[in-house]
Amino acid sequence: MELSQLRIFQAVAEEGSITRAASRLHRVPSNLSTRLKQLEENLGVELFLRERQRLTLSPAGKVLLGYAERMFALQAEAEAALRGGEPAGDFVIGSMFSTAAIHLPPMLVRYHRTWPSVNLQVQTAPSGELLDGLLGGRLDAALVDGPVEFAELDGLPMFEEEMVLITEASHGPVRSAEDVAGLEVYAFRQSCSYRRRLEGWFVASRVPMSPPMEIESYHSMLACVIAGGGIALVPRSMLNSLPGREEVRVHELGAPFDRATTWLMWRKGMLGANLRAWIDLQQGRSDA
Amino acid sequence: MELSQLRIFQAVAEEGSITRAASRLHRVPSNLSTRLKQLEENLGVELFLRERQRLTLSPAGKVLLGYAERMFALQAEAEAALRGGEPAGDFVIGSMFSTAAIHLPPMLVRYHRTWPSVNLQVQTAPSGELLDGLLGGRLDAALVDGPVEFAELDGLPMFEEEMVLITEASHGPVRSAEDVAGLEVYAFRQSCSYRRRLEGWFVASRVPMSPPMEIESYHSMLACVIAGGGIALVPRSMLNSLPGREEVRVHELGAPFDRATTWLMWRKGMLGANLRAWIDLQQGRSDA
DNA sequence: GGTGTTGTTCATGAAAAACGAATAAAACAG
DNA sequence: CTGTTTTATTCGTTTTTCATGAACAACACC
Fold first, then answer.
1. pLDDT tens by residue, A116-144
2. SS3 B202
3. Strand D at less than 7 A from CB of B56
4. Residue A197 CB closer than 7 angstroms to strand C?
């Protein structure tokens, strides 16, 4: 079954005559006659009753006519969705843990309210795995610590984060890595970019960093600092949302380690309607 | 856009590779490559990202993939409906007034309960107009007074009716048309077959029938007989359902005028799934 | 640096679609 | 009743589209 066959069938059914349908489709009647028989042969059903040189729809033909209209409607909808670029379908966005907790929730509700037909999904992972997800096609977009230099990716800066070091409350002021040398370090797993920032901070002071204990959530990270006297690097906005934040001492870092920019990244050429709608929403434009 | 193009697109999208899709479809890769480009050109959209000899679905491609699946599902449903013959769509049945009032209602609820997806419609009219409706394609089936000899139609007997003559209560017994000669006659309009039966009864007795007063409902027909002292021919089952039936006298007619068979008729070749389901239901078979 | 992949281009053969003329059968007009 | 017109269809031909295999360039993997 082909759509062109159905179009011919529909024209004949609606016009009630092969000749009229032929002129409507700018074809020759013999063509329609042949292709109609071919369709009937194909389906194994008689679509028309042929009596006295006149065609009338058979019951099976009436059924098919209904389906033909539905298929054309679907086709038109598909073409409109492709050309017009209305957000639709699945939209899988990846995010770092901190961004997912702080900045993402309000965006999610706005997006879902504006484009309810989009099936929005969020996956949280460290920055490195998010980039893999983008390249592997598992993610449509990702919020990662940036900037990211990657030929296959495009991106836009989204949020500014102030990064702070936390120690136990009794600890003295921290001006450089020397002041925390030897202390236990709590961080996310290897592929987390904040962890690499922390390593960079140690390197800048030429102080060796002890191998970090790998923690899976900011909540337990804070608990570890309080209980165990180690250090951790966290976004200030994240810290402000955690219960128990008064029990640690916050130390501001010097440039360039005190600032982190969260970027929205996507695969080059993958900026589709769903993602564009996200960006527009983020930048205050109401809709397309 | 053609379904064959979409099938190729779907295979490539699912396999993630032109070569694998080609072997799945038993085609040659160059073929798929060309037809894919043709589809993209057709739609004016890039369906795949071509980077380093590898294909990945673009956002537009993901949208189209969803539509392609829906179209194939619709196609499969249509073919199943045509071959398997599941009742669906519109089903327009015509009926005489009396049958519509007495026998049709229980059938309608049974049919609608068994095949809720069928859009069932009933049109009431005199037998003659019903036959026109069948031939003109406005009706899928009709319940008419039979038997009907018509080359274009097929039919089955459905209900047996006893036809009785009613007069005012004070009237004496009626053995032949002579006993009611000269009385006012109430009947439906010309194309009603019961009216022709009555005419036949008069002719058999060689009694001229006065031109009938045309009435549009059995209810008012009964009222006229009560009030005006005329006669009318009605099915006994119809009469039994009418309020005020005690106020008329019922006279049984001799053969062959006392029996009428209501036939279910349809256009030859038009016995589709909807109608077959109706017949099966009528004959006690639960379903297909 | 070979050695297989991959997707694409191109020329060619095969299949399908569209055409035009001819035919038969019914509808219509005189 | 008899031409005339209109109808769907069949058949042979042309045109378009589809499918193929060989040649190629870009990449991945030893």
1. 888 899 999 888 889 888 888 889 999 99
2. helix
3. no
4. no
